[in-house]
Amino acid sequence: MNYLLPYPPSSSAMAQGHVIPAKAGIQAAVPRYQKIAIFPLLAALLTLAGCSLAPTYQPPQVDTPAAFKEAPAEGQWKTAEPAENIPRGEWWKAFADPTLDDLESRAAAANLDLKAGAARLAQARALQQNARSALFPQIGVGAGPTRQRPSPASQGLAADAETSISTLWRAQGTVAYEADLFGRVSSGVDAAKATTEQREALFHSLQLAIQADVAQAYFSLRELDALSALYADTVKLREQSTRLFQRRFDEGDISELELARSRTELASARSEALGIARQRAVAEHSLAILLGQAPAAFTLPPLPLSRVSLQVPAGLPSALLERRPDIAAAERAMAAANARIGTARAAFFPRLSLTGALGYESNELGDLFKWSSRAFVMGPLVGTLLSLPIFDGGARQAGVDQAHAVYAEEAANYQQTVLRAFKEVEDNLAHLRLLGDQTQAQDDAVGSARRAARLSQIQYREGSVSHLNVIDAERSVLQQERVAVQLDAERARATVNLIRAIGGGWGTPDAS
After folding, report:
1. Run of H or E residues at 234
2. What angle do CA 212, 217, 222 make, to 5 degrees?
3. pLDDT in tens, 94-144
4. φ and ψ of 80, to 5 deg
5. Closest CA to 451 of 490, 477, 483
6. Are 410 and 334 in contact (CB under 8 A)?
7. Whole-prediction pTM value?
8. For residue 17, how many other CB atoms are within 10 A of its CB?
9. How far apart are CA 112 and CA 289, in angstroms?
10. If phi over 0 gives left and psi between -120 and 50 gives alpha, with beta otherwise, what is residue 156?
């Protein structure tokens, strides 16, 4: 079937008010036509609208062990499958600490980094909608005058002929549509969708990071509270000891050397206590920022750290690794890069843009909306219906090469993210396993140090040892108790790190 395709009307023809009657052929309005058999061509091109030039997306394989090295032998792990959308739940409630629960809720509501992440996610969703809009026709309306003087040549007149100035009023609706040939538009939509999903995963990663940061900051504060209480007791004991030594010195029972040593130990304990107070103030300020508050508006009452009894099961199913949002984000970035390869390849093929306008045009404003003033235009007013660059100096090939290189980079990043995830789980499993043994050994060391201090006190009262032995024994008790508190805090933080490494929580998906 043959169709008449008009050339775009000249500005002079439009200025003179040439219109196309509703039931008349196109030949009644435009004096020149090109008769082309375009239906088979357009049909063939539109058939390609569903074709995509993006490579088949296949994430690269990552060699992962069947079981963790640091996990018990009975802990079996299956091959990972994407499951980032599985809800993680409020994993921190496993610590059974109401104060921590409250802090996590406040951080979720007011943390400014989290609000910024939510805004970035909203931007990505808006960009996805913007890309998706290219799949649909763009329709608009407009009205306004055009005032012009056509050239004599455009009217077929002599070069020195006079032409008159005219005003052409228009009121019309317009439509524009780019056919999705070779998947150029849909590849862009796929890339935008994958980018949005990447942003969602990054937002979840940020949520998990902030939750873990709050828990770790909280346990660090409690560690400093425990150390502060420890040094407060030590200062009291050394104050009592110094007063006793002062009285004995005044009575002439001991030398000034022993009194000076006692005063040294007291001043040292006070200095250490002040240093811990300084560290606690800074840690409290950091926690306030995580909660979205000014440091001056936040105070956490002192509460010494208790030993964390939470036991994260070592034989976790590998589905927990599938829930890590950073892995999901890396995979979606790779999918977006793959889709953009299709967009870059489509630049080598024709581009079909369909446009049209329907409305009224007249030389007089009062005649604008008369039936005889109706007019329409089909086809681009500027440019061509079907376009294909022939020579671009290698620009399109460079675009394809760049898209492939970006995909290769994202694939390497994805593989590295997976390997790093396994390392983090291995590290924290090792920390918890060895910290359990180390804590038990440290408890024995604390008990032995206390026993030695008691014996040294007895021997000093009996006169068999000097007071220097007592000071050394008490110093050893303080040191061993301080290490025990630090190990308890390290164990709590390692537990939080393990939960973060496995993506948050370790129950079944339905439980979270």
Report:
1. helix 184-250
2. 125
3. 888 999 999 999 999 999 999 999 999 999 999 999 888 888 888 889 888
4. -70, 145
5. 477
6. yes
7. 0.77
8. 17
9. 8
10. left
